[in-house]
Amino acid sequence: MAGDPKEPRRRAGATSPLAGGERPHATPARLLALRLLRRLRPEAEDGPPLAEILDHADLSAADRRLLHALYLAVCRQRPWLDHCLAPLVARPWAEVEPKVQDILRLGAAQLLCMERIPPHAAVSESVALCHAAHVDRAAGLVNAVLRRLATTPPAPPDPAGAAGIALTCGMPDWLVARFVARAGEVEARAWLTALNTAPTTAVRLNPLRGAPEAIRAALVAAGAGVQPAPLGRDAVVITGASRLADLPGVSDGRVYLQDPASQWVAEGVDPRPGERILDACAAPGGKASHLAALLHNHGEVVAVELDPGRAKRLRANLQRLGATCVQVVEADVAALGAAETFDRILLDAPCTGLGILSRHPEIRWRRDAAMIAAAQGLQLRLLQSVANHLRPGGTLVYATCSTEPEEGEEVIARFLAGHPAFQPAPLATVPAPVAEVGPAQYRTLPHRADLDAFFVARLRRG
Ligand code: SAM
Description:
The protein is an alpha/beta fold. It has 14 helices and 13 strands.
């Protein structure tokens, strides 16, 4: 963490935008936003979703809203904010200390993206943040840069070309270059705009805990709006709820937060009651519990998870959701006993997560092309390993929440080249916000409907 909240010290000689000897102090929302921005650094680990952090933060509703808005503005507008700030700093921007960069970004976000924060407050709060975060020496720089930004607002970004897409869609240059190279500027802009847009709150109504109509009625009675979702039989979109945790059904497993595209993946497995299913990479359990629901708990789901912390969360979720036919195995799925066979297998493989940027906006700042190549190596090894456990005539579904062909189409092509017993197993019907991108290979389309971008391939063993 960047430093404890404390009464700031004012350095002698530091310039302050405040008159009359007031002592600046950072608001808890800004201080927590600054700490959270560490999640954007390349070395950071993937943390819990922002919604979860907000639900558990000890903040007033107004502070929670401010924290949310600040964090998202910096995640989603970072290229534009840096573009505006860099010319105002004498040193090259890359040489500015990361924590000071983040304080400047937060200040610029308040000045450029939030109409309700007065400029003087944005500047003075940013100076206060320097003291609270123990970078007192940067207070003068932050004050001077943000004052200049407040008095001379920058021209809007030029949207033309790949550089314009990066600025207007808030994406790193390397990722924009990939999209433009494979799909052209128009399509790249459409995808990246969608992936940079706030997602709706979609949930799955869990029939293992109640009739979907009754669950829906409870949500409506609590004042939530319930709209149809673009994909997923039990998916609905919730509107008008400030804290998901407060909705009826969330704590007792009637309602599970899950994107409709993710829900569609388990439907693609098409499990039949009585069957034995392998969920090869199972935590936190959205799809394992969904498979149990599709089986009406009649059958068996073996849910394998390597990471002990995530396995614990998987068990807790399965218990809350009433998924009694799921057996959790805490292990490397590649070490599964040779005699284990399954009617159907879901491999929801670890991936770069570049398809869930609307929900996890920080991910884009922690990925690079080398990680995509490394992910493919792991995905192919896992696919080759789990395929040995599919019975003849059985179905294997491979999925990732990545936009990148290396983690989707290329994995399947390489796998099929070495496994002639497996053939594509196409769906009878393909719903509208999904494109068939290869034989029995599908992509959910975030620019057609409010969805995460998943890749799904269905294979049958002959
Ligand atoms: N299917 C899950 C759901 O719907 O909630 C999400 C799965 S997530 C994309 C991938 C998971 O695979 C992570 O929890 C990761 O820890 C786990 N994992 C990675 N390598 C594994 C391995 N060799 N064996 C089992 N699990 C693994």
